[in-house]
Every structure is written in C-alpha cells, then in structure tokens.
Amino acid sequence: MNIAKKIKALAAVSLVVLAGTAQAEWEPEGNVSLQIGFGAGGSTDTIGRIVAQTMKEQTGWNVIAENKPGGGGIAMFTGIANRPADGTVIGLGVSMPILVNLVNRPDQLKFDLDSFDYLGTAARAQLALIARSDAPFDDVAGLVEYAKSNDAPIAFDAKPQELAMRFVMEQSGAEFQFMSTKGGAENAKLALGGQAIAAFEAGEHLPFLEAGDIKMLASMNNSRHNYAPDTPTLQEQGYDIYVDPVFFFATTAGTPSEAREALTAALAEALESDAVKEVVQNTLKSPIENMGPEGTEQMMRDGVTNVGALFAN
C-alpha cells in the first residue's frame, strides 16, 4: 500500500473511532431531574441534593433536585415508571418502603420491579439492635433466654423492625412486648431509662456506644456494620431475616443504553467525591456503598423475598 492509500485508510479508521466516541458521549436534552421520594430536610433529601449538585459540577449537566414526597417514595416511583424513558429523570428512594408495598399491595401499585432500570446505591442505613450496657445478655440468644422468664419490651420505630423480632419470637418461643415510637432518639431514651430492654437504632446510638452506656446485640442488616465489625448479624445468630434500608437510584425501564450508561457513570463519579462521602457519613453514619446497576437490581429482588418472609409471620 502506498503512502497516499495508507493516509486515506488511517483517516477512515479515525472517522469511525470519532463517530463511536461521539455516540458514546451521551448528553441529556435539557435538564436532568433528580427526584427525591421524601420531603425537604430529611436524610434522603440531604443526600439527594449533594449528589445532584456534585453531578452538575462534574458533568456540566443541569441537574435539578426535586422533592416528590408521598407514601415513602411510592408517589415518586409511580411517576417515574409511567413517563417516557429518555434518561432525564433519576429517582432516589429507600428500599424498605418500596419493598413493603410491593409485598403487601402489589395490585394497588402502578409499577413493579421491572418498571425501572437500576443505576446504583448511595449507602445503607445501618440498623442495630441495642441494649443498655448492664443488660444481663450480650447477644440475641441471651435476649431470647431473658425474655422466656422476664418481660422484654422492645422499642421500635418502623414496622419491619417489629416484624423481624416477631420472626425471632416464632422461631425461638420467646415473648417480646413492643413499644412503638417516633424515632431513634426516643428508642435510645427508653433503652437507657430501662423502660425497654432492647431497642432499634440507626446511628443515634453511636455516642452512647462510644461512651460505654449501651452495647450492640446484632446488626439487623444483611452485613455487619463498619463501626462494629465484631458484632454479628441477626442472620449469623441463627435467624434468617434482616431489615436493610438502602438508598438507591433508578430511572424508567427501557431507557436507551447510552443514556443509562452515562447516568450510571455520572452517579458513580459523584458518589466517589469527597463532598458526597462526607455528607453521607455525617447523615447516615455509614460509608458510601454503591452496588452498581446489577447489584442494585439484585438487592431489590432479594429484598422482596426477605420482606415477604417478614410479613408472613
């Protein structure tokens, strides 16, 4: 091949490469709405806003955070499931409310797990079962034995927490009493005051744990907590159930692959930024944990099975 032909061939290859690169670099047409399934001021809102701001700074896209409260994310995901799949909307929700509704009233929802393309996760709320440091037991087996011969009130602030302990009751023959509260701060107060023999906490307990005022009986997630790696999960202690609230991102099913890949990459880059890591750590007391698209979808599908077991009792 002479020099002229070589130059033409190289030019042709370059055009193909450039065309492929241009096609791969998807850009949204207009704004990208990062919808948050809860109202302003909460942990989901805080995380959503710093992710939207960071994505905007890193990509140059006009990413706008919008609150879409209602039903623990049900209203937001209903809207996302029933809109055009064009890559201009991302939903940020928490897995447990969605899974509970999918299990308990699937016929009343206008979406199912197949209604979404999953993009990734931000973190999980690390849920602990705790007791006062002088409680006469150190794990779930000890709590169960105590409850067989003593009153054992347990403070909780979400239905899946109660159901997990009812699962333990059924499996063990123990008897717990349940105290419904408005949140972790009240749970900690009841445990420290002795009104509850055990309680559920998702971060509010850490100062008391560090001070030695309380102890952790179990991780209620399906993995151990980063701050308590020696405390086993409830599953590891013999009860095949967990409560694992995960902050996850999804968009409309059928979104074009180039748009989906661009959104996934932009989210992953934002979640790796120091700004987002700091906000997530301060808000949830948990590290960033991005499961990616496949891991997020599998987490949701496994979650339906787990929540089905919770509500079967």
Briefly, what is this?
The protein is of the alpha/beta class and 313 residues long.
**Range of strand content:** 15-25%
What is the H-and-E element order? Answer: HEHEHEHEEHEHEHEHEEHHH
Helical fraction: 40-55%
End-to-end span in angstroms?
Answer: 77 Å
Assign an overall shape.
elongated
Question: Strand order of the main beta sheet, please?
Answer: 2-1-3-10-4
Task: Write structural notes for this entry.
By secondary structure, the protein is an alpha/beta fold. It is 45% helix and 18% strand. It is built from eleven helices and ten strands. Helix 6 links the parallel strand 6 (153-156) and strand 7. Helix 2 packs antiparallel against helix 10. It is elongated, with a radius of gyration of 23 Å. Residues 1-24 have low confidence and may be disordered.
